[in-house]
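Postdoc handover notes: sequence design on the structure in folder B. Input tokens:
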């Protein structure tokens, strides 16, 4: 009986690689966190993640190794081509961002070359390419030498070592730097939300700076909270060279500027870009990173790019949503136009990491899909079983799925079958309805159980509509928790949540929120709360809180410091949780190795 995969690698492949010049520092073991599965409604992480072995080349002893190949081990009694279909080889090549994929059973190997799209015939491991062989082929395929000036950022090491990054982050960073080295100044990355786009942006600019190729950079994000988090991440790496742009501080002495679309006056089609054009002349920046570039108002915010035509420009976006709407619908046309604008300007993404891959790798939360009705409310049977009729459509905002036109419910069909009503009716948007539990975590959680129609929403917010910069405060039950509204997304909430609209010329919302959540603020809420089983802070008592109000600039500095430290603590908390999760798998892993003879 032949050797299994692990023994084939250890006893046959590794010695053959070493004989061909692949020393330990040129072979990288990339292990994922391990998939988190939902079992009986509870999350459970697999004991081990997937392990990928990449081959890397180095220009000199101190340079960052550059991954060029993936090598997969097969059981000794399987052919080397087993499981290496061209489609899978291409996918693995893209996932690791390496042009070469090898597969071996310890005696023979085959190679997939992404440059040519060809898979070789089996050859003996004694013919395996040397590091110099693969470096030469990599440089030829890429169109640049690793010793060329434009390739220097690829050779700059990670600050803090490679343990700080994940495999896909390294793959994304290399993909951008490779495109820049080929002479292209624009690159687009598509990565799922939560995969660490800010980490990628920081390390991209750091490696470019370490290669002495960064003059002045701009990082643009979509809201104040992300600006503060970004400032913390950049400040950890660049120190005082990183600064946040505000409406009265263009921060022209800093090397790395962190700004929001709103501050630069480019957030809507109606914005005048006054701040941008007043403070930053054309080609002021050598590098620009646009976070969440898959957003509306392209015609306005694209001035950031067109005013800096000589800059290296990097677009970051979450995995674009796929909408299966008629091209005639307004939403479908708008989304298609944004995608077309991005692709036309940046080109196809140089690297993509979607939610499914993130969940498989264990870096993104596992999802349990819960289906909910759109049209029917509190009915004994689901609309997926019964379809919908005219009576179900009353007071719904309906659109024809083919034309996008508003459709009165009385003109709709008498009945739509469950199998095809989405082909005729454009589903109405539903507005999240928040409960106290959706804000007591310190931020607004839109993973809600209840939604309302636009008609109901408009009735509920007629007196006071929640807007960006407002403060929500839990007043009943789990009272005394404040959050800042940091989104333009429409929503409404139960009456147990107090709605505060600070005067922006006098009060910084994040300062007010920080005070209300501070020990002093909690003491005031504890003293003001009435009742027994469900204590309540009334609006009258909340209005009587004695909140210290220093000068607005001092408030902003305090709020920025608090938010930056909170972001750092959140990172530490996530790291600790990840370590605890890893430690919890050790006993099972030890027992598995003990009883499989691996110890």
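Designed sequence:
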């Amino acid at each position: 009986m032949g050797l299994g995969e692990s023994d084939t690698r250890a006893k046959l492949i590794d010695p053959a690689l070493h004989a061909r010049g692949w020393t330990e520092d040129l072979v990288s073991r990339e292990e994922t966190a391990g998939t988190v599965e939902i079992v009986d409604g509870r999350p459970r992480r697999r004991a081990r993640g997937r392990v990928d072995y990449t081959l890397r080349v180095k220009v000199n002893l101190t340079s960052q190794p550059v991954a060029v190949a993936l090598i997969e081990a097969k059981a000794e009694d399987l052919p080397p081509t087993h499981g290496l279909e061209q489609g899978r080889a291409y996918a693995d090549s893209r996932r690791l961002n390496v042009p070469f994929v090898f597969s071996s059973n310890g005696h023979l190997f085959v190679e997939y070359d992404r440059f040519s799209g060809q898979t070789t015939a089996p050859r003996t491991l004694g013919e395996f390419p040397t590091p110099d062989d693969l470096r030469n082929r990599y440089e030829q395929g890429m169109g640049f030498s690793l010793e060329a000036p434009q390739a220097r950022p690829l050779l700059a090491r990670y600050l803090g070592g490679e343990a700080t990054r994940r495999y896909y982050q390294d793959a994304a960073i290399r993909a951008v730097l490779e495109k820049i080295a080929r002479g292209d100044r624009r690159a687009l990355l598509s990565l799922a939300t939560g995969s660490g786009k800010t980490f990628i942006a920081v390390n991209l600019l750091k490696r470019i700076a370490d290669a002495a190729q960064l003059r002045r950079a701009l990082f643009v994000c979509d809201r104040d909270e992300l600006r503060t988090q970004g400032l913390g991440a950049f400040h950890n790496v660049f120190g005082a060279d990183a600064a946040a742009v505000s409406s009265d501080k263009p921060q022209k002495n800093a090397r790395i500027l962190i700004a929001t679309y709103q501050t630069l006056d480019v957030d809507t089609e109606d914005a005048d870009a006054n701040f941008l054009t007043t403070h930053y002349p054309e080609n002021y920046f050598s590098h620009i990173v646009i976070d969440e570039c898959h957003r509306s108002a392209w015609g306005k915010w694209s001035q950031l790019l067109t005013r800096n035509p000589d800059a290296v420009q990097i677009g970051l976006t979450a995995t674009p949503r796929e909408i299966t709407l008629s091209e005639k619908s307004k939403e479908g046309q708008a989304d298609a136009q944004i995608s077309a604008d991005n692709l036309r300007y940046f080109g196809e993404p140089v690297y993509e990491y979607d939610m499914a891959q993130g969940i498989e790798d264990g870096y993104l939360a596992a999802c349990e899909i819960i289906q909910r009705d759109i049209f029917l409310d509190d009915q004994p049977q689901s609309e997926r079983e019964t379809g919908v009729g005219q009576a179900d459509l009353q007071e719904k905002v309906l659109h024809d799925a083919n034309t996008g036109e508003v459709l009165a419910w009385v003109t709709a069909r008498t009945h739509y079958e469950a199998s095809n009503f989405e082909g005729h009716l454009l589903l109405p948007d539903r507005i999240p309805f928040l409960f106290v539990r959706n804000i007591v975590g310190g931020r607004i959680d839109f993973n809600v159980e209840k939604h309302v129609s636009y008609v109901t929403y408009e009735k509920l917010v007629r007196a006071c509509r929640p807007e960006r910069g407002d403060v929500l405060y839990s007043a009943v039950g789990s009272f005394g928790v404040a959050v800042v509204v940091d989104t333009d997304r429409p929503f409404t909430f139960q009456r147990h949540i107090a709605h505060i609209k600070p005067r922006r010329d006098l009060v910084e919302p994040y300062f007010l929120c920080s005070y209300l959540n501070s020990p002093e603020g909690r003491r005031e809420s504890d003293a003001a709360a009435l009742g027994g089983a469900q204590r309540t802070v009334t609006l009258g008592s909340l209005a009587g809180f004695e909140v210290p109000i220093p000068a607005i600039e001092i408030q902003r500095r305090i709020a920025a410091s608090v938010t930056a430290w909170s972001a750092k603590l959140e990172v530490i908390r996530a790291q600790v949780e990840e370590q605890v999760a890893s430690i919890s798998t050790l006993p099972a892993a030890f027992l598995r190795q003990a009883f499989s003879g691996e110890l």
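Context for whoever picks this up: The mean pLDDT is 82. Don't rerun without checking with the PI first.
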